[in-house]
Amino acid sequence: MSSMVRNVSKKMIVYEYLQVLFGAGLVGFAYNVFLLPARLAAGGVSGISTILYELYQWNPAIVQFALNLPLFLIGLVILGKEFSAKTLLGTLSVPFIIWLTQGVDLHLTEPMLGAIYGGIVLGIGLGIVYRGGGSTGGTAMIAQLLKKYTGFSSGFAQLLVDGLVVATSAIVFNLELALFALISIYVTSKVIDFVQLNTSPTKLVMIITEKEEEIQRIIRDEIDRGLTKVKSLGGYSNKERSIILCVVEQSEAVYLKKVLQEQEPTSFVIFLNASEILGRGFSQEKIHGYGSKNEI
Fold it and tell me: 139: closest CA among 47, 221, 57?
């Protein structure tokens, strides 16, 4: 058994390193294809390299390597265990991919396209890197140092660092391109959250009802899902009711809404977005039959 556990652990480690490599590849590709041609300095070391390329035609790959490596070493000394081999891998892989793909030119110079699609691809890449437990280094390390010595939150420290880069780009390029860069930063942050949370089209259904058995039958027979029942007390009527919680997929949510409207229209029903679902029927194979899967 211990040998099997070790083998699974080794496979997970290899998979995480592959995630970091693949994600770093997307980050480098997004920079060369979308951000650099559109002259968008969307924060971070990549933004600094874009500004220096505009001013002095310095190779972005070399600039990012020259900035990232000392930042990594400083972070390693000061922050210690928060850094790892996977962080080093991500830190070195991005400038290498940028150097490798710098001949790729799809002639995408429109700032809005660069902001949106660059932000999407960049966010996917960074999200995959983070899911693998790695990092691409850069100004995130400066933000962590600011957090450590100033007491700023991680988000505010990162905003200060990226904001300084974008403000500089407004001077070097123009205000319009700086605003497009802010759009790219926003899109990237949203996509990172999407990838990290493995956001899926699932819904948490909350049903407040006096007809507990009828709702339970509908969920069991119509969509074959488990549920959890919670007793509650009405704030106005002071009557006891049941709150039934059930997690369903998007198509099941649409069907369940239709059935409830037809068969039990008096129940109070709330559909909530669920970012990630772990358990039988979602992240694990579904076992059909009401009593054999997770309650909710």
Answer: 47
Nearest residue to 165 (alpha-carbon basis) of 150, 146, 185, 151:
185
Q: 90 near 134, Cβ under 8 Å? A: yes
Burial 136-157 (b: 16+ CB within 10 A, else e): bbbbbbbbbbbbeeeeeeeeeb
Q: What's the first-to-final CA gap in the chain, in angstroms?
A: 31
Exposed (0-12), middle (13-18) or buried (19+): which is 69, by Cβ within 10 Å? middle
What are 187-246's pLDDT values in tens digits? 988 888 778 765 556 788 999 988 888 888 888 888 888 888 888 877 777 788 888 999
Q: Return the DSSP state at 275.
A: S
**Cα gap 17→208, rounded to integer Å:** 46
Q: How far apart are alpha carbons 87 and 223 in whole angstroms?
A: 44
Burial class of residue 266, CB neighbours in 10 A (0-12, 13-18, 19+): exposed
User: Residue 17 burial by CB count (10 A; 0-12/13-18/19+): exposed, middle or buried?
Assistant: middle
Angle between helix axes 60-79 and 44-56 (nearest 10 degrees) is: 140
Helices (H) and strands (E) in the chain, counts: 10, 4
Count CB neighbours of 20 within 10 A: 28
Among 239, 240, 257, residue whose Cα is nearest residue 248: 257
- CA-based nearest residue to 185, from 201, 161, 202: 161
Task: Please give the model's pTM, rounded to 2 decimal places.
Answer: 0.70
- One-letter amino acid identity for 3? S
What are the structure tokens assigned to 54, written together?
Answer: 């505009």
